[in-house]
Write a structure and sequence with these properties.
The complex is a heterodimer. Chain A contains seven helices and seven strands; from the N terminus they run ββββαββααααβαα. By secondary structure, chain A is an alpha+beta fold. In chain A, helix 2 runs antiparallel to helix 3. Chain A is elongated. The two termini of chain A are 24 Å apart. By secondary structure, chain B is mainly α. Chain B has two domains: 41 residues; 156 residues, Butyryl-CoA Dehydrogenase, subunit A, domain 3 (Up-down Bundle). In chain B, a hairpin with a 2-residue loop joins strand 3 and strand 4. Classes of the chains: A alpha+beta, B mainly alpha.
Chain lengths: 213, 207
Amino acid sequence: MTTPSHGTKPAIAPPTLWICEHCDTVYRRRKLARGEVARCQRCDALLARHHSLGVRGMLALTITAMIAFVQANIWPIVTLGLNGQLISTTLWGCIVMMWREHAQVVAVIAALTLFFFPIVKMSLLFWVFLFARRHQRAPGFRFVMVWLYRVGPWTMSEVFVLGALVAIVKAHMYFEVQPNPGIFAYGVLMLIITAFSSIDVRRLWDLTEETPA
Amino acid sequence: MNELPRASDLGLIGCHVCRMVCRDIKAEDAVCPRCGSALHKRKSGAYTRTWALLIAAFIFYLPANILPIMRTVSLGDVDDNTILSGIIELWVKGSPDLAVIVFTASIVVPMLKFVALALLLVSSQRGSKWAQRQRSKLFRLVEFIGYWSMLDVFVVALLTALVQFGFFSQVEPLPGVVFFGLTVVITMLASMTFDPRLIWDGRDFDD
């Protein structure tokens, strides 16, 4: 874990430079025009992009994602029918079943990447955006930002949506299949995640000011 | 093009976590003044760690493909599916488009990751200047597609939960799926420990 304030700190310089994260090339920062994307000349990685969506917009997206996530988890995803017998399941139904069927490792991976990490990510985003609206840094800002960075790659809801589609098609060969509200909520969630994928949350460091203690 | 200044030449370090530009004070315990994360010029021990994780992932990848990932029991008929046989079944039973998607996620992506990361590691360790820009792009591709391989694991989880019709039809997960899930997690860790800056470093950084 990061224990801030230990260790030797260099002095803070004003944010006038970009360093390409993929090849270490240094650029002078410049203002980007609407829709403009700055790329590294050496390795073509993304340096920065113009954001048309403000903090309020991002907060709204986060809240929408939270609502969709709740819906996706309380409603069944699909129902299968065979000889008049109906079986439906939710995400937690899958997790519990994998645990019982001796695939605990898979149950844990699914619970983390499809449930706990997405919740952590959305809650942390909500928390920092809530304060960033007024250009403030939320209590525990540093901690939250570091954890957002760490949790970032480990949320897999969009993969689960594709997985549900494949499962539906596979099951369709032998059973009657009915999609349930859960799958539509997941679809909405997937759209929001796609919209969010172009947003680098780390710009909050520049958008907010440290509150004098 | 190579006149573009690099942070290490200018005595600067970009924080890995928050992108803060810091002066390199050459202290072992330097931390980012803004977010408090440790400052390194390059991710520490990138070569050793990435190799170790890549090899571990490959060791898990073999049973993931050889062992069946799912058992279907219907009317006493037992059918064990491996990843490949599942794809063939999808193809034959009329969803070739979906079969292509699953084939890409479960076979092409993991293979691509092994080959690409090994290639990046070997070429960077030799300080090769060959196709550096393309290698950078390759790394970003590997990072971007990595987690989509989890697809098959989630399919098995869903089918297991849904197909519970007792004697008529039942699906159970088999050990292959556990190995496969672990392979995906470990390859993701491997691509995270690799430092793409090494592609451009030449031989000056021995790690």
